[in-house]
Amino acid sequence: MVKIGNIELSDFPLLLAPMEDVSDPPFRAVCKENGADLMYTEFVSSEGLIRDAAKSVQKLDIFEYERPVGIQLFGSDVETMGSCAEIASRVNPDLIDINYGCPVKNVACRGAGAALLQDIPKMVKMTESVIKSTHLPVTVKTRLGWDDNTRNIQEVAERLQDIGIKALSIHGRTRVQMYKGAADWSLIAKVKENPRITIPIFGNGDIDTPEKALEYKNTYGVDGIMIGRATIGNPWIFNEIKHYLKTGEKLAPPTMEQRVDVCRRHLEFSIRWKGPVAGVFEMRRHYTNYFKGLEHFKPYRMRLVEAPTFDELDSILKEIANDYTEMVC
What we know:
Elements: E1 2-4, E2 7-9, E3 14-16, H1 25-33, E4 38-40, E5 44-45, H2 46-50, H3 54-58, E6 69-74, H4 78-89, E7 95-100, H5 105-108, H6 120-132, E8 138-143, H7 153-163, E9 167-171, H8 186-193, E10 201-204, H9 210-220, E11 224-227, H10 237-247, H11 256-274, H12 278-282, H13 287-290, H14 298-306, H15 310-328
Parallel strand pairs: 3-4, 3-11, 4-6, 5-6, 6-7, 7-8, 8-9, 9-10, 10-11
Antiparallel strand pairs: 1-2
Helix pairs in contact: 1-11, 4-6, 6-7, 9-10, 11-15
């Protein structure tokens, strides 16, 4: 069993990474149904939350069926981050996570996200501010360092554990790398092997198959894996990995009927969360991902993104299931 504060997870849990414009409540719902053990909200701007900006406030929406679920915060001001942790705690998540890993310019160039890897003392002060402002376990997601000359994750892990974080997720790239090249898990392993480190260490980066999950589990000794981009259009990856870790056998890939069913479930959750108009609109970016690799799919995709109601979308999805199942047969 892996514990994060008072949260008990299974042995070797699989975590859904926080992803902007992806890990909203509807997407988290289908990931939970398909085996995710711990999930996080999209990252919430501390400045936006303080200003009561609608987009930031809406990201605090969590539901009972998601638990355990964490709210992830990012920002550049120490006091503001503390205040936001207090606000986020009021909606009763299971934990608060701090984003020290986001590499995109509009976050890092404003002194937030991965930018804090260039100022460890400020990172420590900010983390202390968050911990003091909430009764919930506080965790951190970060990267190996800012660049190859400052791969300081071992120092970061020790200093953040010393002030009270309850778990650490590490993406195996530097900020300068963005998402290019292969993730380097060797430093993640060194953090885990450090006898001073007693909190759970989760590895993140490049896990996109059950085989790779098993290889990295055995090679690097992490307590669990956080999966991000590989879940997009593929929420069943969690159950696929769990089955492989348990049995050594691969599950058959999802059938067309299963793809359509999960897409429909996602759509239903989207409408339930945002209503019949916005819920339909928000789903449009997901159709290509759910049906990736299908030949001659473009006409169906165009119809899906143009359909204005659930009933019309449901009809098209049934048509897709029938047509592509017949093609296989």
